[in-house]
Amino acid sequence: xxxxxxxxxxVRYGYRRIHVLLQxxxxxxxxxxxxxxxxxxGL
Length: 43
Description:
mainly alpha
């Protein structure tokens, strides 16, 4: 999944910065969903 790829390359980024990067790539995703997926992946 793209969240896992971004978190692997940018280790110090939290879910908020990951969310901004996803939005810049064109993903239409809610910040709450980003947070939930980030936690479920154990990141």
